[in-house]
Design a protein that fits this description.
The mean pLDDT is about 95. The chain has 16 helices and 11 strands. It is α+β, with helices and mostly antiparallel strands. Strands 2-8-9-7-6 form a 5-stranded antiparallel sheet, sandwiched between helices. Strands 1-3 form a two-stranded antiparallel sheet. Strands 4-5 form a two-stranded antiparallel sheet. It binds adenosine monophosphate (AMP) and magnesium ion (MG). Adenosine monophosphate binds next to loops.
């Protein structure tokens, strides 16, 4: 195969044998490239543009792999909707860790590439729609400035996948800082090998947190993971992103958004919003995301108790002390994020009230989360019907008074707001439209949407068709895992 710059140095398979299984991907009968992310390829020094369509299809189906690559699937466990289960990559194969010339280590992984020892009842496959959905939303997240895994390619396998109907099969190539999850640690402590957890701790510190110099390594790791998670959730809350399946196996220790299943962006602001059709109790609703991140961190900390201190009670006490700080750390970062969405520099005591009064007004008026903040990100007062009421007018005056207290200019506030409040997000009906078209063989709407979402903070005429929800104020959109 033509050398396009792969530079693999795979350390994950130096972990004890139980952490992974080496196995080949299932062959695809007639692979065909659907989307290739040349820009991402370039940015990680993979020269995809020199390959023919046939070569791309063979590469990203795994039918022809780069020399020396031995694919493997990872073992992990996880709490799914609160219940512990042994899991693992049921339909994913890692190619290995590609090292960029800037010395960045990235996992390359196929998703939808066949059955593995961890498939349980599943067929190991993925359908085209959900893989394109992951491509679209993960790329949108990246351009919104949110840590995320990336998508390098989607190919059609030429084989069918049976779900509620017969669908075209596909494989996504995912690029991630790593696939170490809370669930990997939960798996490690289930092993007979008592050293497994220590090995994984050292590996994770070395791979992601070499700056952690804490005397107590497990506590240092929990702290570092907590900080990354807080930052990530604050980003999600900023743009109205609802992950939908915040199981511990879907929480990456590298702090990236991972596993785009039933996720979606909120239209009308309602903190109770849930999109996932299987989340009946609203466990993973918009407003619960910080609480769930903390809950997941507690499951993470539990796996490290034997390493924190010889005295288990002491370990529990130290871990609890740390994790109990989550709400406070989160609240402060969340408030600062909300300040930036309102162009507020410095901190004033009244800010919490100002923010919560706006959010309450949004709930009462079914106001669109994205468009309301973007409408405020300008010098002129928004003047559409929605904003005419006395309540909003009063709030607006308070906000203007608060802006006066900034030591920065009003222009600086607007600039800040425009960099935090997207003008466009992947609207649910636009995503559906693009995927439906792609399923029918027309990729144009998908490509157009991907392209629009590359510049979410810049107003331009082309956004007109992408800015509004299908039905203003509607909150009845449903998403499906699509596995
Ligand atoms: P997810 O909800 O995508 O994080 O998946 C949860 C678990 O189910 C993971 O272990 C997946 O690898 C596995 N899984 C999902 N879909 C399939 C499938 N079609 N075949 C086999 N395993 C699957
Ligand atoms: Mg998962």
């Amino acid at each position: 195969m033509t050398d396009i710059g792969f530079n693999f140095e795979t350390t994950y398979t130096n972990l004890p044998q139980e952490f992974y299984t080496e196995l080949k991907v299932s062959p695809s009968s007639a692979p065909e490239a659907v989307v290739i992310n040349n820009v991402l390829g370039d940015s990680i020094s993979l020269n995809l543009s020199i390959l023919t369509d046939e070569e791309l299809a063979n590469l990203f189906s795994g039918n022809r792999l780069p020399a020396g690559v031995k694919t493997f699937s990872q073992a992990y466990a996880g709490h799914q909707f609160g219940h512990f289960t042994m899991l693992g990559d049921g339909r994913a194969h890692l190619l290995g860790e590609h090292i960029t010339p800037q010395n960045i280590r990235l996992d390359l992984q196929f998703k939808g590439s066949g059955r593995t020892p961890y498939s349980r009842g599943g067929d190991g496959k993925a359908a085209l729609g959900p893989m394109l959905r992951e491509y679209l939303i993960s790329e949108a997240m990246h351009f919104l400035g949110i840590p995320t895994t990336r998508s390098l390619a989607v190919i059609k396998t030429g084989d069918s996948v049976v779900r509620e109907s017969v669908l075209p099969g596909a494989i996504l190539t995912r690029v991630a800082s790593s696939h170490i999850r809370v669930g990997t640690f939960e798996f490690a402590i289930q092993q007979r090998n008592p050293g497994a957890i220590q090995v994984l701790l050292d590996y994770t510190l070395d791979r992601h947190f070499s700056e952690v110099k804490s005397q107590n390594k497990p506590l240092g790791l929990i702290q570092a993971v907590m900080e990354k998670q807080v930052d990530l959730i604050v980003h999600w809350m900023r743009v109205g992103f609802i992950h939908g399946v915040m199981n511990t196996d879907n929480m990456s220790l590298a702090g990236e958004t991972i596993d785009y299943g039933p996720c979606a962006f909120m239209d009308a602001y309602d903190p109770k919003t849930v999109f996932s059709s299987i989340d009946h109790l609203g466990r993973y609703s918009y407003m619960n995301q910080p609480k769930i991140a903390q809950w997941n961190l507690a499951r993470f900390a539990e796996t490290l108790l034997t390493l924190i201190d010889k005295d288990l009670n002491k370990s529990v006490e130290l871990a609890e002390e740390l994790i109990n700080k989550f709400p406070e750390v989160y609240q402060e970062k969340w408030l600062n994020m909300m300040r930036s969405k309102l162009g507020l520099f410095q901190a004033h005591e009244s800010d919490v009230q100002l923010v919560s009064d706006l959010l309450d007004w949004m709930v009462d008026n079914n106001a669109d989360y994205t468009n309301t903040f973007r409408s405020l990100s300008q010098l002129e007062k928004p003047n559409s019907e929605l904003y005419k009421g006395e309540k909003f007018q009063k709030w607006y005056r308070r906000w203007q008074n608060r802006l006066q207290k900034n030591s920065e200019s009003i222009e600086s506030s607007i600039d800040l707001m425009k960099s935090r409040n997207p003008a466009v997000i992947p609207r649910n009906h636009k995503v559906e439209e693009a995927l439906e078209s792609a399923n029918n063989g027309n990729l144009k709407p998908f490509e157009d949407l991907v392209s629009i979402l590359k510049e979410p903070y810049t107003d331009r005429a082309a956004l007109a068709a992408y800015k509004n929800p299908l039905k203003p104020g509607a909150t009845d959109y449903k998403t499906f895992c699509g596995t």
